[in-house]
Amino acid sequence: MSKTGLQSLPNLTVQQLEYLVAATDHSTRAAAAASLGVTPSALTQGLAELERRVGLTLFERHGRHTQLRHQATEVLNHARRVVAETRDLARWAASQRSGSAGVVRLGTIDAVAVQHRAEAIRAFHANRPEVDLHLTVAPSGSLLEGLVSGDLDLIVCVEPVTTPEGVVFTPCFAEPLHVYAPEGELRRPPHRWGPWVTFPAGSHTRAVIAAGLARAGAPFDVVAESNQPEVLREMVRLGLGWTVLPPPTGTMSGSGMVTARAEPVAHRHLVVGRREGSPPDPAADALAAVLIGTGTDR
Amino acid sequence: MSKTGLQSLPNLTVQQLEYLVAATDHSTRAAAAASLGVTPSALTQGLAELERRVGLTLFERHGRHTQLRHQATEVLNHARRVVAETRDLARWAASQRSGSAGVVRLGTIDAVAVQHRAEAIRAFHANRPEVDLHLTVAPSGSLLEGLVSGDLDLIVCVEPVTTPEGVVFTPCFAEPLHVYAPEGELRRPPHRWGPWVTFPAGSHTRAVIAAGLARAGAPFDVVAESNQPEVLREMVRLGLGWTVLPPPTGTMSGSGMVTARAEPVAHRHLVVGRREGSPPDPAADALAAVLIGTGTDR
DNA sequence: TCTGATTATTCAGTATCTCTAAATCTAGCA
DNA sequence: TGCTAGATTTAGAGATACTGAATAATCAGA
Fold it and tell me: Most buried among A116, A200, B99, B196, by the most CB within 10 A?
């Protein structure tokens, strides 16, 4: 089982290919070596090694200066190609490192993307045109799954009661949740609140609501469910039941629906989630900073 | 003057890129390492080195098996490209080494290309379609110049009196040179031969002719010159003078021109010339063997 | 032809790199 | 918890690549 049993590829290095390119682009090897910042000796040995690995004699000595054999033009073309591609790759990697470019897959719940952080996301997108931003809007549970599975790099979701393994949360902001009742029912005491229309079982926000209502002494029997706040609001307007929601956005306020109490019954805590121990990702870091509010994305 | 002062290219090796390709093409690293014939340890270290040189984290550990970060797809594309190109280059180099492909620049004098070795050259061309054969027909002097300057790889010329530096000759065959006279003058004794039409000064053949005539006791005053045997023959037919030439090819024999003596006055020695100490060039070697007559190009 | 200047290569020694082998770590599983 | 398999870390041997010095080769000019 010799090491070269499979007739494997010659282990050419980018450096050796650079040597070849430099040697052909300069009239003397001393000049080529100087342009690379190495001694002529290193150049000679490196080119000899390259010849050995390719298995072909590339140079022919004519008096004082060696010149390329015509056979070597194919190798030279290869060298130029690879060196150019490597230079491109290095540039790309540098921009990735600096965070000025890259891909960030962001997931948020609807309210964050549409309302609370819409402007921040828009500004980030405008300020970093080289960053390829993918936005997924979904309920918090789905976002968490996407984060741990690697489909998402960064999420903004409602803080769950139990933090799953491998995820780190950073507090973002808290949003008040108010009780809304159909017109005419709003004067009841808490123990006669309901019945409720609210988010489906498993929803993080629903868990927060359930805890808040329990604290207020209200029952929590659910007669209808939806993930969409607009749908819940409509259900209340139709008299199907009560609900607990964040304050509506400007355009929809107060159309046939009334806040039961001025004070919120609970707060849902929005958090930014990242995978624990994830390798540095400057673009995602910058977006997270913007979303949390510490970012200064000019 | 740090070594990385010029923001020089990362010295990626083909091997590292192979590691990356293998790691993504196999589900486990153990399998990838086995496919490359190295230990898993080598794979781990090699990939770590690659990450260090690119400056980006390429893998993300998810439990027991690491998976590519989406950022790494760009690097992976680069790796696949370079590995494929290197494989092509290696294949090409192998065919160059074996002599089944390559470029050979052959130079010959007219008689060799048109007459003596025409069939050998044609057969070589037919048997090795991958060999790019360039044929230059010129006087021996020009051929020699082309050989030493590197414009030609292989020549067949008349052996010069003094072998120039850096050239090695292999005997090929000898060609008789006969005296031709205008009709009616052929009975003279050698000391009354001439005047002569022959090759220009500097011609190797002319040097051979001059020596032969001197040996025969004939004067050698030249009244007209040409590099083309056909032209010299025509001059004799027109009565301008005598000449010394190889036997004419079949189609032109005996039209108003007579051999002075049945015996040739001299022989010119045709030789195959190569640059001394030239690196191995299997395709040129094979053609040289065919031209000398030792080749068995099926 | 000799000499000096310039260029390329070879050589010796050191530093770095990369591999194997063994030990260690980790996750998944009974 | 212990077990197993995959992945990584570690230590050391061998290969590789560099620098600096010595050597060889070429060209220009006396």
Answer: B196
Question: Which residue of B9, B13, B279 is in closest CB contact with A18?
Answer: B9
User: In this complex, do A11 and B6 lie within 8 Å of one another by their Cβ atoms?
Assistant: no
CA distances from A270 to A93, A132, A138, A151, A273 (A): 33, 24, 14, 20, 10
Question: The tokens of B234 are what?
Answer: 């025509």
Q: Give, for B86, the enclosing helix (H) or strand (E).
A: helix B72-98
For residue A51, the chain B residue with the least C-alpha distance is B93
Joined together, the tokens standing for residue B137 give 């027909």
Contact B108, B139 (CB under 8 A): no
Q: What nucleotides of chain D have any atom within 7 angstroms of a protein Cβ?
A: 5-11, 16-22, 25-27
Q: What are phi and psi of B206, to 5 degrees?
A: -60, -35
- Identify the weakest region by mean pLDDT among A134-143, A152-161, B146-155, B230-239: B146-155
pLDDT band at A176 (very low <50, low <70, confident <90, very high): very high
Who's near A74: CB < 8 A, 6+ residues apart?
Answer: B89, B92
pLDDT in tens, B72-103: 888 999 999 999 899 989 988 998 888 777 88
Q: Using CA of residue A54, residue A57, residue A60, residue A66, what is the dihedral sign?
A: positive
Element (H, E) at A222: strand A222-225
Contact call for A9 and B90, based on CB within 8 A: yes
Cβ contact A218:A193 at 8 Å: yes
Contact criterion met (CB below 8 Å) for A100 and A45: no
Q: Of the candidates B51, B187, B6, B279, which has an alpha carbon nearest to the alpha carbon of residue A52?
A: B279
Distance CA A187, CA A181 (A): 9
Give me the amino acid identity at B249. T
Taken as a whole, chain B contains a residue count of 298
Q: Which residues pair with A266 in a beta bridge?
A: A177
Q: Cα A189 to chain center, whole Å?
A: 46
Judge contact between B177 and B245, C-beta under 8 A.
yes
pLDDT tens digit string along A248-298? Answer: 876 555 555 667 677 899 999 999 999 876 777 889 999 999 999 876 554
Residue A85 CA to residue B194 CA, distance in Å, equals 71
Q: What is the largest CA-CA distance in chain B?
A: 106
Q: What is the DSSP letter of A120?
A: H
On average, the pLDDT of chain A sits at: 87
Q: Rg of the Cα trace of chain B? A: 32
Residues of A in contact with B57 (CB under 8 A): 279-280
Domains along the sequence of chain B with CATH = 14-97 (1.10.10.10), 103-165+273-292 (3.40.190.10), 174-268 (3.40.190.10)
CB atoms < 10 A from the CB of B58, how many?
A: 23
d(CA B48, CA B210): 76
Banded pLDDT at B2 (limits 50, 70, 90): very low
Residue B195: asked if its preceding bond is cis (omega within 30°), the reply is: yes
